[in-house]
């Protein structure tokens, strides 16, 4: 067996937490389980998980607030578990910084596939000269660093992959379906919501005016394009 993926599972339902922990271990993951948001945040501070699986409906500090606190200090990928899959839950989770979501009842093999898909999205640097200048935005594809003027925005791996996909060909329009395939790598019923929420988070980090974006532009009825920036 190769290196085990470290999964932090935050779920208050004892039976589901135990079942998912056992199943994920059988799929080759090392699982640390927490029964509340506070316990999960403490476990995150004590260790360095590769990914967090986070229930929305937690006692005390709910999953949305836990995700916000995680994002305030870490770019670790987060998959949220939602009981209903309703738009308000899904969109709220994505807007707080989640990378993906799974609707309950959770099938362990589906969760395992989602975990592996999210972790595969780590940006890989090309072998050729990769430093690009787009106005005030400088993208170094080799070092995977980003500057915007005097700022150095910190991106999650999903945000990085989205930025690299869009900036690869400035001016070219990519549909949401194309971005979903290139960034997430699989078909997803909530695909447009995943893409739109990630675009919104990316704009908040790299645009001076997110409501009037210079870099990540919307092409109504088609999708998104990067610039071109003069």
TrEMBL record:
Record carries keyword DNA-binding: yes
Ranges of the DNA-binding region feature: 129-228
Database matches in Pfam families: Response_reg (PF00072), Trans_reg_C (PF00486)
BP-aspect Gene Ontology terms: regulation of DNA-templated transcription
Ranges where the Response regulatory domain occurs: 6-119
Domain of life according to the entry: Bacteria
Name this polypeptide is given: Response regulator
The species this protein was found in: Rhodococcus hoagii (Corynebacterium equii)
């Amino acid at each position: 067996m190769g290196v085990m993926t470290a999964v932090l599972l935050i779920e208050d339902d004892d039976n589901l937490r135990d079942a998912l922990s056992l199943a994920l271990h059988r799929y080759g993951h090392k699982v640390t389980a927490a029964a509340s948001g506070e316990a999960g945040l403490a476990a995150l501070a004590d260790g360095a998980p590769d990914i967090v699986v986070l229930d929305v409906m937690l006692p005390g500090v709910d999953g949305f607030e836990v995700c916000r606190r995680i994002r305030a200090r870490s770019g670790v990928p987060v998959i949220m578990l939602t009981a209903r899959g309703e738009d308000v839950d899904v969109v709220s989770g994505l807007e707080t910084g989640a990378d993906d979501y799974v609707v309950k009842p959770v099938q362990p093999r589906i969760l395992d596939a989602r975990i592996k898909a999210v972790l595969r999205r780590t940006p890989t640097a090309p072998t050729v000269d990769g430093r690009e200048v787009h106005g005030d935005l400088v993208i170094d594809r080799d070092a995977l660093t980003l500057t915007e003027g005097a700022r150095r925005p910190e991106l999650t791996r999903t945000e990085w992959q989205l930025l690299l996909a869009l900036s690869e060909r400035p001016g070219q329009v990519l549909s949401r379906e194309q971005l979903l395939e290139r960034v997430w790598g699989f078909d997803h019923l909530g695909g447009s919501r995943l893409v739109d929420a990630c675009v919104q988070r990316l704009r908040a980090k790299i645009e001076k005016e997110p409501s009037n974006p210079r870099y990540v532009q919307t092409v109504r009825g088609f999708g998104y394009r990067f610039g071109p920036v003069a």
